[in-house]
Amino acid sequence: MKIKFLGTNGWFSTATGGTTCAAVVLSDRLIVLDAGEGLYKVPKVAKEGGISKTDIFISHLHLDHTIGLHTLPLFRKGCTVRLLVHKSYVKSLHTLLNHPYTASASQLWAKLDIVPLKQGPNLLPYKVTVLPLRHADPSWGFRFEFDGKTIAYCADTGPCENLARLADKADAFITECALQPGAPELRGWPHLSPEMAAMAAKKAAAKRLVLTHFDAVRYKTLQARLAAEKAAKKIFNSSQAAYDGFVVSI
Ligand SMILES: [Zn+2]
Ligand SMILES: [Zn+2]
User: Fold this and answer.
1) Measured between alpha carbons, how far is residue 108 from residues 36, 43, 58 in Å?
2) Cα(134) to centroid of ligand 2, in Å?
């Protein structure tokens, strides 16, 4: 199973990366993790794999996780796209996916459905466990179980207990790294430093940690991301910093 990182910046896109998006390639569908600017690359990944079904999981509605939704018209006829989001965000998502912001669902080539998720386990038909994280607006973490593998994806959050719950013994724990090495906890707008992410991975006994969502201002270069990787490795050795185009095989 491959995980392709298509956007790895937080906040806004720069020459270093686009905003957050990754695609897990399964035999019959793509599982997309957030809809930042990298989302425009997903239809090409689907086409290359001969895959017609795409499930896009949205952690929260901050624009660095949703700005790519205006590229949904790139999905062609015959594609089925589902947007899966915690039920508390369904109404706002309908507002965002309509005029005057972008085309309405009825104007798309692809068939589009919005699927509400509940806290706890959801069967879709694969299993996804949804738990709240700690952020400026509610942000939701996901734990996916399919084809004998477990992937945890925790986007914007400060340190919290649910990180290790979602990542418990996961084959891949993908989480954010908006703060620089050694940064203290941010109170008003919680995020993770590499050390905070690594502590959660260690507590969870995950098999590997992948850092993404590098803040566009704090991480101006890929070199800076390598310093984050190094800081994480001191706590949890199987840590990697993602970049646009990075592929993980599990
Ligand atoms: Zn973000
Ligand atoms: Zn956010």
Assistant:
1) 19, 13, 19
2) 10
